[in-house]
Write a structure and sequence with these properties.
The protein is α+β, with helices and mostly antiparallel strands. The strands form 4 sheets. It has a 5-stranded antiparallel β-sheet with strand order 1-2-3-4-7, with helices on one face. It has a 4-stranded antiparallel β-sheet with strand order 10-11-12-13. The protein is built from 6 helices and 13 strands.
Length: 368
């Protein structure tokens, strides 16, 4: 073999070595194959996620519950205040307000049926304005109840108004307002108005307008108070209603359901405690009223005579001084009952039992 042949063999060997070296995979680089997590890694990740998310989830749930409670409490406060505003406006027209003795005296004559079933708390007579109800001419009589021009005159009538604290034991599925179900239903305040009719003075002799005319009395057997009956003072005479001068005491018919509207729901039904309210609250609120005895001496009016309340509950009560036509009304709502089926008042949850009061001086005093 000559030298040229040997050189070719050497060149071929070097070329193979060079090619083999250049195209050989670089073993020093990281393997690009993606591998999955191991079981241990997954368990560790799950535990860490649980430890982080659990407190966060509890925090979110707590925030949502707090927001719901605050919203329910705020709504209850607004409802209680709206009810008190309505009562205050109503009481502003009062000419006589019954105290505890008076309510007890006439309670058997007040409407009492399944609609108004409950305890009468605030009972008073008021002078009510009836706008554009009296005809100035006989030809305008038929249009007076709805007339907006100057052909009709205004008139005043007397009305007996009674506010009841009405408990409800019907906790059936159909009783929507009592939700959530279960437990004892909260109480509600209902209002009944017993109104005199308008007298048509355009005829001789004057007569009442009769139903279905909207100026007619409600109900049709309306019996006004009568100050001509015997009595040592105004209170004694008013406490005898509906006694008539002829000695009879007619029965008062029960009102239709539509005429006994609900003023406000979810009134607290917790039992009376020794610390709430205070034993002399009414006396202090009404300025320690006194009464004159037969021998001419004065005596403080007792708390028992001033306070009108359901003896077992304190969600709705009134303090009344009949001699001055003054009443202080207190309502305590139960926001907690809207969220759970049992809700008893205690000092620790008092924020969820919003309480408000209003004191009103009536329009005047009868026969004075």
């Amino acid at each position: 073999m000559n030298s040229q042949a040997q050189e070719k063999i050497v060149m071929k060997s070097l070329l193979r070595l060079l090619l083999k070296t250049n195209f050989k995979p670089n073993c020093s680089k990281v393997d690009r194959t993606v591998s999955g997590f191991t079981l241990i890694e997954l368990l560790v990740a799950m535990i860490m996620t649980f430890l982080i998310l659990t407190p966060l989830l509890g925090f979110v749930v707590d925030v949502l519950n707090t927001d719901r409670k605050e919203q329910v409490k705020s709504n209850t406060e607004q409802e209680v205040q709206a009810a008190l505003d309505f009562i205050a406006e109503d009481l502003g027209q009062a000419v006589y307000i019954y105290d505890k003795t008076g309510v007890d005296s006439i309670v058997d004559s007040l409407p009492n049926d399944p609609i108004t079933n409950g305890t009468p708390i605030l009972v008073f007579w008021k002078r009510q304005l009836m706008k554009k109800v009296l005809p100035t001419l006989a030809t305008t009589d038929a249009t007076c109840p709805n007339n907006d021009n100057n052909t009709c005159n205004d008139s005043y009538v007397y009305s007996l108004v009674a506010y009841y604290l009405r408990p409800d034991t019907n906790n059936s599925a159909s009783n929507i307002w009592c939700q959530p179900g279960g437990g004892t239903c909260p109480a509600r305040i209902t209002r009944y108005q017993y109104r005199d009719g308008v007298i048509n003075t355009n005829v001789t002799p004057p007569v009442y307008f009769t139903a279905p005319d909207p100026r007619a009395a409600k109900p049709t057997d309306f019996l006004p108070f009568n100050l001509s009956i015997t009595g040592a003072n105004l209170q004694e005479k008013m406490n005898k209603w509906p006694l008539q001068p002829d000695g009879t005491t007619p029965a008062i018919s029960a009102p239709p359901a539509a005429e006994v509207p609900v003023l406000v729901n979810y009134i607290d039904t917790s039992a009376v405690t020794a610390t709430y309210p205070t034993s002399d609250e009414c006396q202090k609120a009404l300025g320690n009223p006194t009464t004159t005895l037969a021998n001419g001496t004065t005596q403080a009016v007792s708390e028992a005579q001033l306070r009108i309340a359901d003896p077992t509950k304190i969600g709705f009560y009134a303090c009344v001084d009949s001699s001055k036509t003054v009443a202080r009304v207190t309502i305590r709502g139960s926001a907690l009952r809207k969220m759970q089926n049992t809700a008893n008042y205690s000092s620790s949850n008092s924020a969820f039992f919003p309480t408000a009061s209003v004191q009103v001086q009536g329009l005047g005093v009868l026969a004075q």
